[in-house]
């Protein structure tokens, strides 16, 4: 009868017994240990200790230098952000929070002439230094488009051409929105590229409209403008504009439910009676009440009120 595999696997292992030698000094293992044991002098130990210390100091200096670069990049990025201001015809405030020292959110507020005020806001895909560098590089192109007084659709077209021509190898894309407020005509003309639609809150919170983006994201194709790439609406005294990045409406509660644009619109309506320069704090506080867990994306809010 053949033995089963399990019986073979359970067979006892033979034990070979070694009688102890009469003298421990004659043991082969003792000879082996004596022969291979390293002989390190005190001087060599000190040399090794100093070398380790030097390496630790080098790493510490490298970390400090990297941190200095990150802080410098953060300062540069924040310096590119607009400052709040009060014009007799329009008030503007801005709030920015990044989950890292630097991020891909960026916005501008700039006059092209006495009556035309441009608002731009963008969000580069990803987080950290790469998106921040791209946002900083593109700031000049956006600024020149504004100073030349280009129509919003042409600002989108020009920016997309720059990204496709010079930054396609980065595999970074961005959402973008530009609005031109004509303070003489009391109108807002806008063109968006995949960016969350800003909110237009009519005076005293009578109603809220979403200024939807018409075009796909910047950088995904050479020609992204659709048949009607920009739109215009009239403005009245007391109207407010809320420009923001997706870090705000994508904030989740404990059940994983997003705030969404509708939730942000409700908060904007609740803030209708507040002074404009209190609105950003109010919005961020209400978003924080909805939020469960740490922030996962940068957040930018740009608010303006027609006077």
Question: Would you kindly provide a brief summary of this structure?
Answer:
With 307 residues, the protein is of the alpha+beta class. The protein contains seven helices and eleven strands.
Word description of this protein:
The chain is of the alpha+beta class. The chain has helices at residues 5-9, 28-36, 42-80, 129-147, 152-166, 260-270, 276-290, and strands spanning 85-87, 90-97, 105-111, 116-124, 174-182, 187-193, 199-201, 208-210, 231-234, 240-244, 299-306. The chain has one domain (85-306): PPM-type phosphatase domain (Phosphatase 2c, domain 1).
**Overall mean pLDDT:** 86
Lateral strand order in the biggest sheet: 1-2-11-10-7-8
Radius of gyration over C-alpha positions, nearest whole angstrom: 32 Å
Whole-number tally of structural domains:
1
* Helix content bin: 25-40%
What is the CATH domain class?
Answer: Alpha Beta
In whole angstroms, how far apart are the ends?
103 Å
SSE order: HHHEEEEHHEEEEEEHHE
Oligomer: single chain
CATH architectural arrangement:
4-Layer Sandwich
Please tell me what the overall shape is: elongated
Biggest sheet, in brief?
A: 6 strands, antiparallel
Could you give me the name of the CATH homologous superfamily? PPM-type phosphatase domain
Number of strands: 11
Uncertain stretches: 1-20, 22-30
CATH topology descriptor: Phosphatase 2c, domain 1
Task: Work out the strand percent.
Answer: 15-25%
Classification by helices and strands: alpha+beta
């Amino acid at each position: 009868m053949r033995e089963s595999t399990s019986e073979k696997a359970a067979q006892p292992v033979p034990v070979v017994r070694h009688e102890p030698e009469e003298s421990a000094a004659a043991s082969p293992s003792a000879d082996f240990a004596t022969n291979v044991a390293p002989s390190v002098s005190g001087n060599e130990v000190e040399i090794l200790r100093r070398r380790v210390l030097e390496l630790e100091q080098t790493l510490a200096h490298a970390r400090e230098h990297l941190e200095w670069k990150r802080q410098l990049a953060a300062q540069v990025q924040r310096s590119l952000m607009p400052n709040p201001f009060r014009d007799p015809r329009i008030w503007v405030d801005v709030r920015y929070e990044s989950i890292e020292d630097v991020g891909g959110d960026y916005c501008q507020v700039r006059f092209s002439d006495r009556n035309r005020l441009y608002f731009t806001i963008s969000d580069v895909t990803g987080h950290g230094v790469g998106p921040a560098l791209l946002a900083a590089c593109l700031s000049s192109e956006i600024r020149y488009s504004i100073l030349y007084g280009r129509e919003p659709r042409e600002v989108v077209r020009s920016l997309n051409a720059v990204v496709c021509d010079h930054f396609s190898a980065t595999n970074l894309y961005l959402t973008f929105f530009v609005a031109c407020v004509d303070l003489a005509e009391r109108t807002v003309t806008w063109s968006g590229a995949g960016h969350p639609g800003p909110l237009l809150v009519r005076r005293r919170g009578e109603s809220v409209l979403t200024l939807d983006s018409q075009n796909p994201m910047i950088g995904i194709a050479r020609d992204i403008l659709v048949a009607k790439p920009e739109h215009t609406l009239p403005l009245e005294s007391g109207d407010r504009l809320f420009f923001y990045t997706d870090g705000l409406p994508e904030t989740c509660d404990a059940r994983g439910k997003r705030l969404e644009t509708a939730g942000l619109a409700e908060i904007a309506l609740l803030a209708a009676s507040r002074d404009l320069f209190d609105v950003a704090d109010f919005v961020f506080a209400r978003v924080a009440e909805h939020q469960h867990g740490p922030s996962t994306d940068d957040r930018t809010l740009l608010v303006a009120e027609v006077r």
